[in-house]
Amino acid sequence: MNVLLFNAGSSSLKCSLMASGTGAVLAHAVADWAGAKDGGQPRYTFGRGSDAPTSQSVDWHGYAAAADAFLRDLRKSGTLAGLHEIGAAGHRIVHGGTFREAVRITADVRHQIEDLIDLAPLHNPPGLETLRAAEAALPGIPHIASFDTAFHATLPRRAYTYAVPAAWARDWGIRRFGFHGLSHAYAARRAAEMLQRPVESLKLVTCHLGHGCSAAAVDRGACVDTTMGYTPLDGLMMGTRSGSVDPGVLVYVQRHHGLSPQQVETALNRESGLLGVSELSSDMRRVLEAAHGGNEPARLALEIYSHRIRQAIGAFTATMGGLDAIVFTGGVGEHSADIRESVCANLACLGLALDPVRNANGGPDADLSAPGSRARTLVITAREDLSMLLDIERVLGTP
């Protein structure tokens, strides 16, 4: 069965056509507008199977337009004779609330996803926009929601419970959910393969670093802690998101500087992170370039970014009582040797030693550890599509 997969991020849409059972990628595309706010041009890349993809600047912007472009190219390229050859579609939904596993999308499921928009304002709306476009083009097939929160359903109560009035949790459902679960789940499985050990024997810290960033403690195959919380705003510093901030700051700026809740939300979600500190860009490539050119705010942004990740790795190692490997994945984690080097700079105390040559030259999937390093440092290509495909096969009962 041919399966269509849509992965809507906060600044991009990744699309794949895969064969169930084998996991072969028949075609893929990425629409990326991360740099559009800085005056850059949105880009669209399409490729068939293992053929070299073609990339072009485009004058359109939006998830529905990107989904339509991919469906058009599947026919135009001859990958499919027609859309009738697609048997199912999978959709990455960032905030799944109380959903603990993937489900077939019904009207009720869609309403529940819509109810969570306020908790993931940068993510659930793009997922829903993509879903509407896909359902309009492919109304006769099952559409499956894969939730980024599901992998974190194994969090123990001590990890997901906030130290706030118990009624907040009991009556309002305030708790830590965690996100990027599809990526963390695949990274843990792939790390076990690379280390040639059962995942049930490993203590891993997986770091998904892209426009959004999070880390997870994966102890013997189960997530036991993660940096993101009730929303995808918590935890590590990101492209435009602040990550963790003293809640007293939020009270202060509203009480003494007249900011409304909406203004605070906009500032923390869209004007903070790399963009907020550097005052330059949310795109890691531009911030790195500026820092190398002597730009002090850009340099500070990178130092904070790496510092937060390093803190999480240390904390999660203590939580698990040991560490076998850390994993870098996601666009920044896979492609920035500078960030990997900066994060690992002071982690020798955890048994980590990064080989500078391997780090500079190694690409996914690779072991970047120096000879004799007790804990390993791995870089792994993010394959949320494979996690989504497994979800679809399980929901539909197909191999």
Q: Please, could you describe this protein's structure?
A:
The strands form two sheets. An eight-stranded mixed β-sheet has the order 5-4-3-2-1-6-8-7, sandwiched between helices. It has a six-stranded mixed β-sheet with strand order 11-10-9-12-14-13, with helices on both faces. The chain has two domains: 146 residues, ATPase, nucleotide binding domain (Nucleotidyltransferase, domain 5, 2-Layer Sandwich), CATH 3.30.420; 184 residues, ATPase, nucleotide binding domain (Nucleotidyltransferase, domain 5, 2-Layer Sandwich), CATH 3.30.420.40. α1 packs parallel to α3, α10 crosses α11 and α11 crosses α13. It is of the alpha/beta class. The longest helix is centred in the last third of the chain and has 25 residues.
What low-confidence regions span 5 or more consecutive residues with pLDDT below 50? none
Q: Order the strands across the largest sheet as they lie in space.
A: 5-4-3-2-1-6-8-7
- Tell me the CATH superfamily of the largest domain: ATPase, nucleotide binding domain
Overall, the morphology is globular
- Radius of gyration, in angstroms, nearest whole number: 21 Å
CATH level 3 topology of the largest domain: Nucleotidyltransferase, domain 5
Described by strand count, sense and barrel closure, the largest sheet is:
8 strands, mixed
* Share in helix: 25-40%
Order of helices and strands: EEEEEHEEHHEHHHEEEHHHHHEHHHEEH
**What number of structural domains do the residues give?**
2
Number of strands: 14
**What's the tally of helices?**
15
- Architecture (CATH level 2) name of the largest domain: 2-Layer Sandwich
Please report which band the strand proportion falls in: under 5%, 5-15%, 15-25%, 25-35%, 35-45% or over 45%. Answer: 15-25%
CATH class of the largest domain: Alpha Beta
Distance between the termini: 9 Å
> Could you tell me the mean pLDDT?
95
Structural class: alpha/beta
